[in-house]
């Protein structure tokens, strides 16, 4: 179940972290998942002993070759009943892009505006959770107007 938050939940463990990285011009960075054939948020599992911020930085570097600024704003979480843990979504700013070797899960990043990302997700898969997360990030960042669908 997706919930909007302003701080990381502490009642259960967080096993996954994802982000919507923003560029200065309001565009976002997403990745193409080669296995699922979908446009997806950047992130993944938190390794044992790893902080949430470190896990997110690692995933951003591995999946998209980006370094995030230190400030990460939690804005949504998904509670996985079957695992008893959360996936937390952050709004982040891209500090810089770096060269990175091809990743086995993704084929690289896609830079787009929020409205186009939403249209692509609707057309390709229609997954409401992903649409809600991207839309919320767009609203919070000011890149999307309230009446945009």
Automatic annotation (TrEMBL):
One of its GO terms (molecular function) is hydrolase activity. This is Nudix hydrolase domain-containing protein. Pfam families: NUDIX. The lineage of its organism: Bacteria, Bacillati, Bacillota, Bacilli, Bacillales. PROSITE patterns: NUDIX, NUDIX_BOX. Residues 9-134 form the Nudix hydrolase domain.
């Amino acid at each position: 179940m997706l919930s909007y938050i302003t701080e990381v939940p502490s009642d259960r463990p967080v096993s996954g972290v994802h982000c919507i990285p923003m560029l200065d011009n309001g565009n976002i960075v997403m990745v193409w998942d080669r296995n699922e054939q979908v446009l997806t948020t950047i992130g993944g599992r938190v390794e044992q002993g790893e902080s949430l911020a470190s896990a997110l930085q690692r995933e951003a570097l591995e999946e998209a070759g980006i370094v995030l600024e230190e400030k990460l704003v939690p804005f949504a979480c998904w509670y996985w009943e079957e695992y008893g843990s959360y996936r937390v979504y952050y709004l982040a700013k891209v500090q810089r892009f770096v060269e990175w070797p091809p990743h086995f899960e993704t084929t690289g990043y896609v830079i787009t505006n929020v409205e186009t990302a939403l249209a692509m997700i609707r057309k390709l898969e229609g997954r409401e959770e992903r649409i809600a997360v991207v839309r919320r990030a767009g609203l919070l960042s000011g890149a999307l107007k309230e009446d945009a669908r």
